[in-house]
Specification:
Structural class: alpha/beta
Largest sheet: 5 strands, mixed
Number of helices: 20
Distance between the termini: 59 Å
Mean pLDDT: 92
Oligomer: single chain
Helix content: 55-70%
Shape: globular
Order of helices and strands: HHHHHHHHHHHHHHHHHHEHEEHEE
Radius of gyration: 25 Å
Number of domains: 2
Low-confidence stretches: 1-5
Strand content: 5-15%
């Protein structure tokens, strides 16, 4: 409650919000244990099997989290996703504290309600990807800045540096935290004094030191990860609006339509803080949103922006939505609080309904579609499919499995018995952390398993003298096909079997 006795929902105590967080955590834990792994999760689990300083696709934090979850709860979907289930608990506390410092208790409570209801964050509380730690440490970085803003204690810079460094161990997107900090320091006259504080520069050094494993790994692997990820900045088509339309559509769905529109309205008001630089609270919120949002909107003019890339912004956009609701209430002298509360209820309810629908579909699909049309289909039908693969492996005399994609390799490695070697023939830099493959393995026949839509026959014939088609298999769920595979028997290598 505020000094004025108000709450996000009149008559509803804050304990209800805590209960909602607890209930949704339990729901996330149940879904995490019941739903099959996505392709990326299976791949990150493969990375986590031998924790390393970094990897070619992303920094190591997601793999480290998976390794910790497997250690605690086992090598199963719940154990692999354990940190994804628990991370939002810390994130909601940081979000509430950040909003409470800058805008008061009512906005803070509404922001947490909105974040709790956002479908993208609901999915992120189950599925573990690099976005899981990225969102967490993005939020913690700006929470520490809010504590610095309120207290004036320069030592908070060291907390900012630690959180920012952990963010850089999570995803390269978190480099934009630094851009936001620079904006906040530069655009408000009162903030510029921090440029003369040794703690600011110590925080920068701390962030670099914490992120040093990524730099060291890249320096010993021909800067492969930096080249792969930062190469996306310059790739793409000419100027086009089709990807921008995709970004807007995905945002409206994954933030939930009412919350998304409220957030845009609030963000419009917050943006003026960057132009006028007279409100340090709104300036700090804008600094957390606008650099990354601007980059992705520009990126969308020439290349696709995956919806999850903007995940770190969603908690802060929830604050923007809460600010918009507050403005609506103030704009109605009579019954303003009641109107704002009703708007909050409808917005949160719509988000919760969409999130619940996504959870239900992940566990018990409403309709079964091929995985090219429904990404959740990649989570289904593996147990029966790998049984067929194992039967063909035994009947063909193969002693190892070959694939051409990390997704198929990771899913087979997870679902087949651990004693069966599964090797992706290409992109070997992905597996630099794993022990070297004994070349004698290739004296035995191999079984190639891959999606039909990924043609690889010419390469197989270039690497093996004997390539014999064995079967076409379907991975199904409820009798409906979700993916089609082709299987070949491989024998007598003609040269290097594994190559980048």
């Amino acid at each position: 409650m505020t000094a004025a006795g108000k709450a996000a929902f009149p008559g509803v105590p804050a304990i209800v919000l805590l209960a909602a967080i607890g209930i949704t955590t339990v729901v996330r834990a149940v879904v995490a244990g019941m739903a099959g792994l996505t392709d990326d999760e299976a791949y990150y689990r493969l990375l986590a099997s031998v924790p390393a300083m970094s990897y070619v696709d992303h920094p190591p934090m997601a793999a480290w989290m998976i390794a910790a979850g497997r250690f605690v709860a086992g090598d199963n979907p719940f154990g692999i996703r354990l940190c994804a289930v628990l991370a939002p608990l810390v994130g909601f506390v940081a979000l509430w504290r950040f909003a409470h410092i800058l805008f008061g208790e009512v906005v803070a409570e509404r922001a947490v309600w909105f974040a709790l209801a956002m479908p993208l964050l609901a999915v992120g509380g189950v599925v573990i990807t690099p976005d899981t730690p990225s969102v967490l440490f993005w939020g913690l970085s700006f929470w520490a800045l809010a504590e610095l803003h309120e207290s004036g204690n320069a030592n908070w810079w060291l907390v900012v540096g630690l959180c920012a460094g952990l963010g850089l161990l999570s995803k390269y997107t978190n480099l934009f935290v630094g851009a936001g900090i620079f904006l906040w320091l530069s655009l408000h006259p009162a903030n510029r004094r921090w440029f003369f504080a040794w703690q600011l520069w110590a925080a920068g050094a701390l962030a670099v030191a914490v992120a040093m494993p990524v730099v060291i790994w890249n320096s010993t692997h021909e800067w492969a990860s930096f080249a792969r990820q930062f190469g996306r900045v310059v790739k793409g088509e000419g100027i086009t609006l089709k990807y921008l339309v995709e970004v807007v559509g995905a945002y409206l769905a994954l933030a939930s339509p009412i919350i998304a529109i409220l957030a845009l309205a609030g963000c419009h008001r917050v943006t003026r803080a960057l132009l006028t630089a007279i409100d340090p609270a709104r300036l700090l919120l804008a600094a957390g949103i606008l650099p990354l949002a601007t980059y992705f909107l520009l990126h969308a003019l020439h290349s696709r922006v995956q919806p999850n890339w903007m995940a770190p912004l969603y908690p802060l956009l929830a604050i923007c939505a809460a600010l918009a609701v507050e403005h609506v209430g103030r704009g109605r002298p009579r019954n303003g609080d009641r109107h704002a509360s009703r708007l909050t209820e409808w917005a949160a309810a719509a988000g919760f309904c969409l999130s619940a629908l996504l959870y239900w579909h992940a566990v018990r699909p409403l309709v079964v579609l091929p995985e090219t049309q429904d990404p959740t289909s990649q989570m289904r039908g593996w147990s029966t499919f790998v049984g067929e693969v194992e039967r063909l492996k035994q009947s063909s005399g193969a002693c190892w499995i070959a694939t051409a994609s990390y997704a198929t390799a990771a899913q087979l490695a997870y679902n087949l018995p651990p004693a069966i070697p599964v090797l992706q023939l290409t992109e070997r830099i992905r597996y630099a952390h794993l022990p070297r493959i004994d070349a004698s393995l290739f004296g035995c026949q191999g079984l190639y398993v891959e999606l039909e839509r990924r043609p690889f026959l010419a390469t197989l014939r270039a690497r093996f003298s004997e390539v014999v088609e064995l079967a076409h298999l379907r991975r199904t769920y409820g009798g409906e096909p979700v993916a089609h595979y082709v299987l070949y028997r491989l024998a007598r290598p003609t040269g290097a079997v594994l190559s980048d």
